[in-house]
Structures are given as structure tokens and as C-alpha cells.
Amino acid sequence: MAVIARLRSAQINSAVIRSVLSRYYKDGEIYTVPFGALRGIRLRYRPEINFHAMLGLWELDNFRLLRRTLTAGGLLEGNETTCDIGANIGLFSLWLSSHGVPRGTVHAFEAAPKTLSALRDTIAINERSNVDVVPFACTDRPGPVEFFVGHHHHVSSLQADWAAGDSGGTAQKIIVDGTTLDAFFYGPIARPAPAFVKIDIEGGGVYALKGCTRCAAEARPLFLIESHTPDEDRAICDLIVNFEYDAFRIADRCWVRARNEPYPHPDGVWGNLFLCPKERRVRVAELVAGGRP
Q1: Among the three residues 39, 58, 77, which one is the final residue of a domain in this structure?
Q2: pLDDT value at position 170?
Q3: DSSP for 123-141?
Q4: How much is the mean pLDDT over the chain?
Q5: How far apart are CA 200 and CA 198, in angstroms?
Q6: End-to-end CA distance of the chain, in Å?
Q7: Which H helix or E strand runs over 62?
């Protein structure tokens, strides 16, 4: 039982377990996720997908926070519009479609061609009709944009250095369609503005956050943002300060006090952050009790 408990908590990452799992999971086969917030969804296994995702042990802290705030806490009513920017293979999109907004819409943005194909496959396998797959990079201007495909689907980015990784290799440069959140929601095709936006685009938040100023000012969505670089930290600082947001850092369960300071300031803007408009701070603080108000 102790082993199962540790597995559920994602504390096991041994070569022995990886060897056992590699014998079980076969390339191209579809499996049901056994644990976690995504228990019951179906994923097609590919060697580039890590076993934590296949088991439902990926992004545990983020999903716990979203459940506590968006669903159990009632910050979403279930019929709103949401965005998954950097949808990857679709884990957050699936959670939002069934738990966050089962009567609403999830716009899932993904630009990397191979990952986009996997995302569409995931949505089809799970028969999610309320997920709209958007084959665009979310950036600071509409139109074609350079995009860099890395060696792994988790590192492709609008930033060449990030996509290349620490190995010093090179990423494949391609041209993809780009858009801004403001253009997507307030452009020629008007759409209901988002109530929640998740952003995890490997440093690309530097650009995407510049393109959602009207959304931030008028729609006042909640954000879940994973920051990867000092420049991305600073872009989040700008959003927080300019549009009067507060930020809760998930890793240490603390509210950001140094709102205009990036990493390495201990009370600054870095890591995985849950952002709320200042007018919702009191309610969000109640829901994330345990983080110092």
C-alpha cells in the first residue's frame, strides 16, 4: 500500500519502474488514465509522452489548485469560455471540458504541428465536443510568426534558445499562424470573452501577455501561468501591475508580495502562478487557505 501511495504522489521515478511501464505501454495503443484529476480519460501512448502523464500523475499541484478554486470554490459556474494556451496533448483541455466548463467552451491553442496532431487525436478519442482546437501560436500580433520546434514536445516555443534547450542543439524553425487573445475574442469574429486562461508556452508568455491587454482590462479572467524565464517573469509583472492583479505562487503556497520583482527575489514573480483580479482577491484567498494572505 505504501508503494501505491507514493506512486499516487509521484514520488517514484526509478529505472526499475520505468522499465516495467515500458513493457506495458505500447506505441499507438490507447490506455485509460488510472489516477489523479484526469482519472478515466483516454490517452494514446507515444514514446515521447512521459509515464507520469499516462498514469495521471502530471501537474498534480496545478490540478489540485484548480479544483479547489474553479470547481469546488465556484469561481467558474460551468458555462463560461476558457483558454488552454499551449495545450500540448490536451490534458488541461480535457480537465476544463469536463470539470471546469462542462457546459461551456475550451479554446485549445497549439502551434507545433506534431503536437497539434496529438492534441486533436486526444480530443477525438475522448469525444469532447466542447473543445475547440485552435492551430495558432498565441503571440503579440496576428499573422505569420516564427516558431521553433524542439527535440521534445514540451520545449517547442516562440523562443529559439528555449526550444534548443541546454544541450546547445538547434531547434527547427517553421512559420505558423499567430494571433493575439484580443484579436481572437474581439476581432472580426466576436467570441464570448474568457473567464479563465491557462498559459504554458515555454517562454512565449513574453509575447502572448502583450496581446491580451483588452481581455485583462475588460473580461478580467483568472489566469494560471507557468513562467520559464526571467523575461517571462517580467511580462507577468507587467500584467499584475498594469491591470491590478494579485498572484498566488503554487510551489510555496504564498501570495506574491514583490509584485514588480522577477526571480530570484523570494517574494517575487516566478514559477507557477494563479492570478486573480484584485477585486476577487478576498474570495480566492479564502479558497487557497494555507497560503499566507
Answers
A1: 58
A2: 77
A3: HHHTT-TTEEEE-SEE-SS
A4: 92
A5: 7
A6: 36
A7: helix 60-66
pLDDT tens column, 262-276: 999 999 999 999 999
Residue 15's pLDDT is what? 76
Cell of 72: 469546488
**For residue range 195-208, what is the model confidence (pLDDT) as tens digits?**
999 999 988 999 99
CB crowding 219-241: b at 16 or more within 10 Å, else e: bbbbbbbbbbbeebbbbbbbbbe
Are residues 112 and 17 located together in one domain of the fold? no
66: its cell numbers: 484548480
Domain that holds residue 21: 1-58
CATH number at residue 167: 3.40.50.150
The yes-or-no verdict on residue 168 having pLDDT over 80 is no
Q: How many domains does the chain have?
A: 2
User: Quick one: cell of 37?
Assistant: 484529476
- Is 292 contained in some domain? no
Query: For residue 240, what are the CA distances in angstroms to 174, 248, 262, 268?
Result: 32, 11, 12, 11
Q: Does 126 lie in the same domain as 6?
A: no
